[in-house]
Predict the structure.
Amino acid sequence: MSLKTVCGLLLVPLLLSGTPVQAPAQLFLPGVIHATQPRVTLRVKGLEEPGRPLMTGLCQVRYTVFDRQGRPLLGYPNRSTPCAEVGLGVNTTRGAWGTFTLDLSRVRAAKLPAGTYLMTAHVQARDGNTRLPPCVSNTATLRVP
């Protein structure tokens, strides 16, 4: 089993654990997401004192859908996806909350077989010209009818 640290979180296949000590923000998806939803809200909680404003680049608020064995099936946006989002802000002040909206139309368009999948969200932020390590959300359950 390979272990990877992302944004201060220990990423074990299908499981995020540990304390985001060095992360500027923590990301939260709802525990259960239904593919029939048009959108899902990704909540962002600041963890720094003092905080700072961070910005995202074009297409840098993303999600990945995995099968139950942890194999990635779908990533959005990807290199072939046109994106409208640019310059979205993140406030990293401890206790400050923000949100991003994730469009689930690509999940429906992928026509995944009915079943239960897993989903994580990722945000790649910049502090001025410095690219920060990507922050990864909790792993949510995605239900496809």
